[in-house]
Amino acid sequence: MAPRTDFGAATMKQTPDATSSATPFSKLPGYWTFQLGGWLGFAAFSYVTLTIWYNPGELIPAIHTVLQALLGIAVSHPLRWVAKAVWDAKIWLRILVNGVAIIAASLAWTALRLGAFTWMSGEIISMDDWGGWIFGSFTVMASWAFCYHALKYYRQWIEQRELALEAQKSALEAQAIAQQESIRRLHAENLARESKLRSLKYQLNPHFFFNALNSVASLVQKDNKQGATEMLARIGAFLRASLDEDDALQHTLRDEIDILNQYLGIEKVRFGDRLNVEFNVDEDAQSVEIPNLLLQPLFENSIKHAVGRSLSPTLIRLDARRRGERLEIIVTDNGPGKPTASNGAAERSPGIGLHNVRQRLQSVYGDDFEFSVSQDRTSGFEVLIRLPCGAPGHRPFS
Q: Do the strands 370-375 and 250-252 form a parallel or antiparallel pair, or are they unpaired?
């Protein structure tokens, strides 16, 4: 069944993103434009075809012609109420009700026309002439009802066509958004693979590998076979974790910390008591998913710039907690802060690793994340990340 529409409405409610320009539906004239224009046209037609021929130059017949048009406006308007009231009814009931309403309106308009003519001219119309007046009134009212229904159906057709066009436009926009999401997902996958390759490349870097093997050789020379075996096991476990990690772009913070501990175990053998690590992770934060290998570049940055440049014990601390629907991660170290101008040391600055972290966050979360780096002369270095938590176990890009 066709939806109901108010023929009297001249504009259509538009969606928030619709343009301000008028649509074809809103350009259609309203009910009162047709009502007034149609009856004035009827008055002009009656005057030209009847009044001017049978009563040329007479004022009263001309006034009566205009008056009966005004009475027609008043009598025909209730037909609109009747049509709207039964618009959704069965077709036979609509025909019956509208037919009765047309007959009633025809009789009422005939009585008003004859009464006005008798009052204005003093001439009494005989009952023999009523048939012609009633037939004319019925023809006009039936024509009015036909035009009303035809225009209303036309408006419905226009409106449905525009709704179909809007639906098609929305579908195309949704398809474009899906394509953008697909591109973003591919970009995220590419960055994740690049990050894993960089991580593996770092482990195979001659300098790192040389230091790791030197640590193993030192343990062998000290006849610490158990320590050397453990060191080799840690190197193998971390390389295996980098190679054997599945293709999922995200895993839980708990899994991330497990891989991070393998990496830190290798560095702990190199730096001994100079490297101290502390984890302060809330239980409900451990199940939140984050991009794979997100934290290692942050710890690598602190080991390189803090532990590697100081002979004193250095503490690297990881704090993670849920704050509502956001996960807050803070990595800090108490190594050398921002150097003074007099010592001539190079200032710590976000390198390729931190830049890679920001890029991956941008690719996965769009603009819905926070990433900031701060340092000064006393409190070392700090990296702050805030991410949306999402549903536990949800892997949007896996």
A: unpaired
How far is Cα 113 from Cα 64, in angstroms, rounded to an integer?
8
Sequence length of the chain is 398
- What local confidence, expressed as pLDDT, does residue 39 receive? 85
Which candidate, 349, 330, 331, places its Cα nearest to that of 339?
Answer: 349
Q: What are the residues facing 384 on neighbouring strands? A: 330, 372
Spatial distance between the Cα atoms of 117 and 64, rounded to a whole number of angstroms: 7
**Beta carbons within 8 Å of 157's beta carbon, 6+ residues apart:** none
The residues that bridge with 381 in the sheet, in sequence order, are 333, 375
Strand, helix or coil for residue 324: coil
* 181-217: b (≥16 Cβ within 10 Å) or e: eeebeeebeebbeebeebbeebbeeeebeebbeebbe
Segments in the chain forming alpha helices (H)? 24-27, 31-46, 52-54, 59-85, 91-121, 130-204, 206-221, 225-244, 253-271, 296-302, 352-365
Q: Please write the tens of the pLDDT for every residue from 103-123.
A: 888 888 888 888 877 787 777
Contact of 263 with 295, CB cutoff 8 Å: no
Q: Give the mean model confidence (pLDDT) for residues 247-275.
A: 85
Q: Is 223 left (phi over 0), alpha (psi -120 to 50) or beta?
A: left
pLDDT digit string (tens) for 292-338? Answer: 888 988 998 888 888 888 888 999 999 999 999 999 999 999 887 65
> How far, in Å, CA of 244 to CA of 255, rounded?
14
User: 333-365: buried (b, 16+ CB within 10 Å) or exposed (e) per residue?
Assistant: bbbbbbeeeeeeeeebeeeebbebbeebbbbbb
